[in-house]
Amino acid sequence: MIEPTQQHHERETSIVTPEHVLLRFQTAGMGSRAAAMMIDFAILFLVNLTVFIVFGLVIFGKDSEFFLETENMALAIVILVVFVLNFGYFLLQEAFWSGQTIGKRLMGLRVMRDNGQPITFLGATIRNVFRIVDGLPMGYFLGALISFFHPQDKRLGDLVAGTIVVVESGRPARPSRKKATQPSLQKHDYPQVLELDERQKQLITREDWQLLSSFIERMSSLSPDKRKELGTQVASLLAKKLGVQDEPLVRNDPIVFLHFLHRILQKEWKLGSS
User: Fold this and answer.
1) pLDDT (tens digit, 9 = 90+) per residue, 96-146?
2) Which of 111, 129, 149, 190 has the fewest CB atoms within 10 Å of its CB?
3) What is the C-alpha separation between 261 and 253, in angstroms, rounded?
4) Are 110 and 166 in contact (CB under 8 A)?
5) What pLDDT is stored for residue 75 in this prediction?
6) Domain range spanning residue 22?
7) Running DSSP on this structure, what letter comes out for residue 164?
8) What does DSSP assign to residue 271?
């Protein structure tokens, strides 16, 4: 369930998860998305240039008779390699790097599903196949036009794939800032470290894990008040499901409880969370 709103010329979207937790995100406008795309295209330009130079040196380094015999095959190989690199660059990074490319990470953007959960490999494939259509007739005119008029800044690929691009923070993400927001999970600070038996671990569903991991990943983009409010909601939901709602750690510091829980569960859910 998504409820788009607009405030101070910045579009926001509110997502209600299947667990009835409200998540609010600022959608990425054309400016930030264009900047991220320019970074990615600059990287791809250098990669493509390197490919052409390498193939050129290999082909032209041979005698003329060999070159004439292999010219068409070499050209076909170069075209195939360039296509795989350009398509795979966006697809693989978004699918396996939590909805980000290098450009999106530098600009503090992330692709996610409409329900607030991480993008899947299928979703990344669909939105990047439609990147070709969004690029028509040139310069991503069609994609920019659709994004400009859509209330959630979606391009055609996002509409078909059921995805949305959001801003993780008010300015480009910086690793030092994100690191500073992470609480220290030292045992001497919390002597009663959270422990779960196998029965309790089995109570956590895929939706529960996606909710938990999404909160941990996006915690740095939330204001302190919003982080505390949302963290308390998520912690209350998961603690009740696990039957540990009366634990001192849950009552005193729900954010740290969520970090401990994430650390315990990530080995089991790591492969299934992509």
Assistant:
1) 988 999 999 999 899 988 877 789 999 999 999 998 888 887 777 888 888
2) 149
3) 12
4) yes
5) 76
6) 1-172
7) E
8) G
Indicate whether this model's pTM tops 0.90. no
Q: Which two tokens stand for residue 128?
A: 């990047």
- Quick one: DSSP state of residue 120? P
Residues of the chain with pLDDT under 50: 1-9, 170-192, 271-274
Contact indicator for 166, 13 with CB cutoff of 8 Å: yes
Same domain, 166 and 205: no
Instruction: Say what the pLDDT of residue 37 is.
Output: 92
Cα separation values, 86 from 75, 82, 92, 157, 223, Å? 17, 6, 10, 16, 36
- The number of distinct structural domains making up the chain is 2
- Residue 254 CB neighbour total at 10 angstroms: 20
- Final residue belonging to a domain, choices 138, 172, 206: 172
- Please identify, among 125, 147, 172, the residue that sits at the C-terminal boundary of a domain: 172
Distance from C-alpha of 154 to C-alpha of 163, rounded to nearest angstrom: 8
Helices 30-60/64-96 angle, 10° precision: 150
**At residue 243, what is the residue type?**
G
Largest Cα separation within the chain, whole Å, is: 81
CA distances from 233 to 24, 151, 238 (A): 14, 28, 9
